[in-house]
Every structure is written in structure tokens, then in C-alpha cells.
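Support case: uridine-5'-diphosphate complex. Customer-provided input:
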Amino acid sequence: MAPAVIPDNHQLHVFLFPVMAQSLIIPMVDVARLFAARGLKSTIITTPLNAMNVSKSVERDRLSGLNINVQIIPFPGVEAGLPEGIECLNEITSPEMMPKFFRAMDMVQEPFEKLLEEHRPDFVVAGMFLTWATESTAKFGIPRFVFHAANFFYLSAKESLRLHKPYETIRTDHTDENSSSLFVIPGLPDKIKMSTAQIPSHSESSNFFVEMKKKISESEVNSYGILVNSFYELEPAYAEHYKIVLGRKAWHIGPISLLNEHAADKAQRGKKSAIDEHYVLKWLDSKEPNSVLYVSFGSVSRVNDNQLLELAMGLESSGCSFIWVVRKIKKDDEERFLPTGFEERVKGRGLIIRDWAPQLLILDHQAVGGFMTHCGWNSVLESISAGVPMITWPMFADQFYNEIFITQVIKMGTPLGPKEHNWLDSKNVSLVKNDKIEMVVSWLMGDGEEAKDMRKRAKEISEMAKKSVEEGGSSYANLTNLIEEMRIYTNK
Ligand code: UDP
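Agent response - structure generated as follows:
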């Protein structure tokens, strides 16, 4: 996408305040860059450690003449009871740390309001967990948008569950995935079945989560509108359902990651890659088109050693080429999951990247023909944009909804992962055995008719994604409409 820079004497100024988590900062920085590319002044608000990860792409845009900058505010983690140096949700290692992190995010309201007073931006885009931003912006008469790194299907299904609680009327026996723990999500355009095991249990039991969900919902309803990282053609029925049936004012402006056209932008999103991107590209260049499986479980998910061992064995026996991103649970953890001699045996066809990979660069390479993913929405949409079919392995949050969306709605992937929700504690989750992993990987990467059809569909959907962000496309037009609406609202 090459967004046009619209010369503008009365430049609109937008504040973008992402929730402090890798997967929420990454797309929001892209949104900031997108606004700047359309001639607006974009200011990203973030904390000192998180700012270090966004500065490179912002600097590149500044050098190319865009009006984009970063405004730093302190993060009161220690005051909220967190250990020193934690400014990002990805560093949370126990469920008890969660409320403390949210307390710290609440404490940022005051410095944020000072910035609003000082700079008076024309409008604000803030992440959904920053619920108080709706109230703060209202004090200054500034419209607030909620940014969702999610799709309309998830937003609609989640809202249906919140309103109708269909799971309450059924038995919650999770031992049999085909038993009565299945329920239909009421009121959706398709008949979508879900299992009680796929819903986060803490959402029903813990006061903290119940309260937080209520606040998110209220701040959304009271906000000016919602920005959704999706495109109309991907899920027209759900885009309509969310806007018309549920009555939410929403703009689809994605896939946002398609803004990154150049290798440097693709390689340097989020953290610094643990591997030289030129080496990865050279490695991929040596492979046949569609022959490499990319395996990554995002920036937060944790997989236990027993499961990683099964995964290693499954990948080895599949005979496929693969790039596997492995993150240890704690920095000083030993790596005990690789079978003896594994790296030697898969040399040349298996590339292991520790910690952080240049994901966009990898997915966009023609050698990549499959993505084993934890179904975080950014990763899913990046895969959709690149036309790469998926093997789904969800763990928590919206990931089970995304798995259903991929496998049942757009039919661009096949399921593999466990059937129960697990977050920060993967010890009690049922193990996916290596023979099943081998079978599913071989199926997706193989030459069977169904797999070929899925690859074809993936390429078609990817074309639609690209068109949507080009001039004249649905997401491009939506962003134009939003900017125009803000111009009228602010009289600029
Ligand atoms: N990502 C990356 N390299 C990695 C892991 C993740 O660039 O090694 C990026 C990925 O491209 C995506 C984001 O981090 O944009 C992860 O977001 P997602 O919603 O997929 O998952 P989460 O991290 O929230 O589980």
C-alpha cells in the first residue's frame, strides 16, 4: 500500500495510546504511521521501555517527512506493586501480577490528562484496556476511539456471550469435547458452536475480570467509535452484524500490517529480531515455494516442555522444512525440550529462532506455505494478508474465537491445538501428541486436493486484503471517511 500524503494547512492532530503489550503496541504504531501517511500529525504515547521498541520505525517515517513522534510518560509499576523494570503485559509471569499491572495502567490517567491539556489533540485513539480514556477525553471535549486488534466475528461473538450467557444452561464437563459442553452462540449470522472449555474460566469467577469486562464495555459504548483491524470483504456478515444489529459505530481500517512495504519496516516491528533478517531471507530463498512451515505462538503464550518435545518430534517426523520460534518461559530456563541431536538431524531444513523473529518478513516470503499459530489476531491477519493457510493452536483470550473463525468461517486453516483454555499455566492442558502433529503438518503442507484448495482460497483472500487497503478499497475509504468526519467535527 502506498498511502497518499494529503497536504493540509489545518493539520489534524491524533494521539495514539496503546495498551502496554507487544501485540497491542505493534498494530497501534502502524495505525499512527497510517494517519501520518494521510497527512495528519500522529503522537504515540507510551512508557520509557516500550518507547525503545517503537522508535526505529517512527524515526524512519520522520526522515521520510511524516509528522509522527513519540511522547513518553512514566509507568508507575513499582508503585502498583510490580517488580522493577516491568512495563509490558508480556512480562507478566503469574495471574496475581495482572491486577497490579492494570492498577499501574489506571495510574497513568493523570499524566495522560496533563498531556491532553497541554497538546489538545483533535482526537484520541486508545487501547481497549485504557477504559478511563473515554472519561479523560470527555473532560476536554475530545473524541475518543477504541482500538481493537480484533475482528468483527470475535467482537460480535463475545458480545453475544456477554448478553445471553448461553454456557450457563449447560453442564460444564470438559472431559468430552463432543458432549453437551458444546453450545451455539446465539444471534450470529452463522450457526457457530463453541465449547465451555474454550471460554476463559476466570471471566466468570474472578471479580477483577468481571469488573474489567464491564468497564471495557461501558467505555466502548460511551466512546466516539471503534477502530477494527479487519477488512469488510473478509467478514461482511459480521461487520454488518456488529454495526447494525449491535449498533456499534465502527470503522474497519485493516489489515494494518500491510502498511509495511519495505523489508526494514517488516523486520523491525516490536522487538529487535534475535536473528539477522538477511540470514533468514537467504535461508528462505533456498527453499521451494510453499514448502516451509512457520511455527510461532506469539509474544505471550507459554507452552510447557513436554508439549514442546512432542512438537519437536512431530516436526522432525513430518519431513517438512520449518522455521520455529521458541521462547523460554523464563529467561534463565534451561532448554530441556529438544530431543537429543534434534538440531543436527534437522540441519538445513529446520531453523530455530529464539525469542523474537521478523514475522512479517517470514510470512511474506513465497517459500512459506503454512503457519502453525496460537491464533493471536495480529498473527492471523498477517497470515491472511500473506495468503498463508494456518494450523491453529489457540490458548487463551480471543484465540479460540479466532480458531473458529479461521477453520469454520473463512476455512483457511485446520485445527490442532488443545481444546481447553489455558493461560500462564499450561501444565494441566492435554498434550497434543507428536503423531497427530506430524499428520496435520503433512496434510497442510502436502499435495492433497483439500490442502491445495485451502492454499488457493488463502491466495484469493490475500488478494482481497491487499485491495482493501489500496486507494479505492474498503479499508482505505473507511479511513478517509473517518478523517473527514474528524475534520468536520473539529471544524478543520
Ligand atoms: N511477532 C513478531 N515476532 C515474534 C512474535 C511475534 O514479530 O517472534 C509479532 C507478530 O507479527 C504480531 C505480534 O507480534 O504482530 C503478536 O501479536 P498476536 O496478536 O499475534 O499475538 P499475542 O502476542 O498477543 O499473543
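The chain is about 45% helix and 15% strand.

Case will auto-close in a few days if no follow-up is received.
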